[in-house]
Every structure is written in structure tokens, then in C-alpha cells.
Design a protein that fits this description.
The chain is built from two helices and eight strands, in the order ααββββββββ. The protein has about 130 residues and is α/β, with parallel strands linked by helices. The protein has two domains: about 40 residues; about 80 residues, Immunoglobulin-like (Sandwich). The chain binds copper (II) ion.
């Protein structure tokens, strides 16, 4: 270590390195938080809400979900009632979903896929598979 640098270190009050460390830690945390936020904004496939449909209060939410081809959509029953997820053309069919259960379907082809709950025919949803 050069004499100039060790002189500076001697001159610095003892609390200084701790403060510097705290500041560095804060900057690092902010960077990590910002970085994480940015990556979720950019990611289409890993996004935790983009390909998710909640079933709650006798409704599919969102009722219409638009995804890109190749996306796996996950339905989660957050309701106290049992429900199903069944496509109008029966290309996908969940079977009974009780509270907390999930159903997944991968949408390869573009198009508009309507589905409903077999127990509650008024519960309807649509998955739009599109490149836009
Ligand atoms: Cu239902």
C-alpha cells in the first residue's frame, strides 16, 4: 500500500468504513431491487401474472387473457367452491379443481379459445393466443 493511501486511511474516523459499507450495501440492494423489477417487466414467459388465471368469487380473472404462442397458462382455484376449466371445443379439460388446485395448458396455436366451468356455466373465460 502506498504511503499516501495509508495516510488517508489513518486520517479517516473509525466510523467512516462502517458508514461506507452501509452506503455500499444500500446502493447494492437498490441495484438488485431495480434489476429484479426490470427483469420481471421484460420477461414474458417467467412473468408470474402474465400466464396465470385465478378462479375466485365464481369468476375467471382475468376473464380474457392474451398470451404468445407456446405459453403455458396456469389456472389456480382460489375459491371455496370446486370448479373446472373446460374448453368449448374440449381441447383442454381440467377435471375437478378444488381449493388451491391448479391446471395447466400450453397454447401452441394462435387463436381464440373459450372455456367455461362445467359446474357453473355462467363462468366463462377466453384465452387469446396472438403474437401481438
Ligand atoms: Cu365453477
Amino acid at each position: 500500500m502506498s504511503p499516501a493511501v495509508s495516510n488517508i486511511l489513518k486520517v479517516m474516523p473509525t466510523t467512516r468504513p462502517r458508514f461506507t459499507f452501509a452506503l455500499l450495501a444500500a446502493v447494492l440492494l437498490a441495484t438488485v431491487a431495480f434489476g429484479a423489477k426490470k427483469s420481471t417487466d421484460k420477461s414474458d414467459k417467467e412473468d408470474d401474472k402474465g400466464d396465470q388465471v385465478s378462479i375466485k368469487d365464481m369468476k375467471f380473472s382475468p376473464a380474457t387473457l392474451t398470451v404468445k404462442p407456446g405459453t403455458t397458462v396456469t389456472w389456480t382455484n382460489k375459491d371455496d367452491h370446486d370448479h373446472t376449466v373446460v374448453a368449448s371445443d374440449e381441447t383442454f379439460k381440467s377435471g375437478n379443481l378444488s381449493h388451491g388446485e391448479t391446471f395447466e395448458h400450453k397454447f401452441e396455436k394462435k387463436g381464440k379459445f373459450q372455456y367455461a366451468c362445467t359446474y357453473h356455466p355462467r363462468m366463462k373465460g377466453t384465452i387469446v393466443v396472438s403474437d401481438d
